[in-house]
Amino acid sequence: MKRVGVLCVGNDSPGINAAIRAAVVKGLDLNVEVMGIKDGFEGFLRDDLDVLLRGNVSNVLHQGGTMLGTSLYVPENNEIGKIKSKVEQYGISALIIIGGRLAAKSAINLMNVGVPSIVIPATIDNDLSFTDFSIGFFTAVENVKNALDVLHSTAESHHRVMIVETMGKPSGWIAVIGGLAGGADYIISSAEKTNFNEMIDIIKRRYEGRKRFSLIVIESGVEIPEDIKKECRFSPEEGSSIVIGRYIEKQLKDFGIEWRYTNLGYLQRGGSPSAMDRIIATQMAAHAIEMIKIGKVYHAVGVKGFSITEIPYSETIINYRPVDFYLRELTKLFY
After folding, report:
1. In angstroms, what CA-CA distances link 256 with 14, 153, 185, 212?
2. How far is it, in rounded angstroms, from Cα 287 to Cα 294?
3. Is the N end or the C end of the chain the one with fewer CB atoms within 10 Å?
4. Which pTM does this prediction carry?
5. CATH 3.40.50.460 residue ranges in the chain?
6. Residue 235 has pLDDT above 90, yes or no
């Protein structure tokens, strides 16, 4: 019997529990024992792990977050040897590392000392280069869309500009896709240089016409030109979205525009996972167990549409993938 250790590295995302569930169920089918490691590599170092059976995962599919907990800790330097010793101590054939860029970095570090693993992509940012979609992205976009639907009515009622801040820097996926799905009137992301004059013109045209409100989606931490920073009293503590709100107010003062700011923050990351996140998580985790069963490791599992892909480890699996140009251009049709 082969033994697999499953752990999470990096931030949580909806659908990780579906992946853990699939790994356990597929493992039982293929006579592969699955050990759940609590709180990432930190938990591994303190021997916080146990065998997972079907009963442990029977009611987790619909739950957000991760039943195993997670940690941002990435083993490096001397700590890598300690992790290798733990792998040998528990007779683990390979690790399944669930997470984003930190998970990929951990896998490469461990590969360098001969610790086998498979990476399953799980990040709401959807910014990993080796996969079309990562676990949690679809739920995050749904949460953004729902927030915009709610804010639309109060923006229209009070004739306000509503600024909605999303996560996802620097890839732009959440802002662009969430904004497109939620009917944003302008989207600002790190994926391309912002045309602030265009944004002001669009808001102005709306107020001159029949739609005297606007929904502006802004990716957290976007770059602001120095002249706008100076004019609008930029403060790192307040962030870019507040400065853009002040800029809109100054540029359109003749209209007496009021603006309000909502940072969606961790609301994007939580909640019950969407159908798509559950499906891709199940596909990728089951496939990872199949790969380990035949001894195929040192690969990242991804999806291309609904098809599973296997990408050998290299430094490129850590690369960022910005939101598609076509999708960025598509949003402009509705401005």
Report:
1. 41, 20, 19, 11
2. 11
3. N
4. 0.95
5. 138-270
6. no
Q: What is the mean pLDDT of residues 157-165?
A: 96
Of residues 188, 191, 139, the one with CA closest to residue 166 = 188
Catalytic residues: 125
* 135: nearest Cα among 13, 267, 39, 230: 13
Cα–Cα–Cα angle for 135, 307, 131, rounded to 5 degrees: 45
Q: For residues 120 and 60, what is the distance between their CA atoms, to the nearest angstrom?
A: 18
Q: Is the dihedral of CA 17, 263, 149, 200 positive or negative?
A: negative
Q: Using the Cα atoms of residue 140, residue 143, residue 144 and residue 145 in order, give the sign of their dihedral.
A: positive
How many whole angstroms separate alpha carbon 256 and alpha carbon 176? 28
Q: For residues 81 and 59, what is the distance between their CA atoms, to the nearest angstrom?
A: 36
Instruction: Report the amino acid identity of residue 276.
Output: M
User: Mind listing the pLDDT tens digit for each residue in 147-158?
Assistant: 999 999 999 999
The CA-CA-CA angle for residues 281, 127, 105, to 5°, reads: 80
Q: Are 181 and 141 in contact (CB under 8 A)?
A: yes
One-letter amino acid of 19: A
Contact 215, 182 (CB under 8 A): yes
Q: pLDDT tens-digit profile of 121-151? A: 999 999 999 999 999 999 999 999 999 999 9
Please tell us whether the domain made up of 138-270 is placed in CATH 1.10.8.420: no
Q: Where in the chain is the domain with CATH 3.40.50.450?
A: 2-136+273-318
Give me the CATH topology for the region 2-136+273-318. Answer: Rossmann fold (3.40.50)
Tokens 């120095």 locate to 226
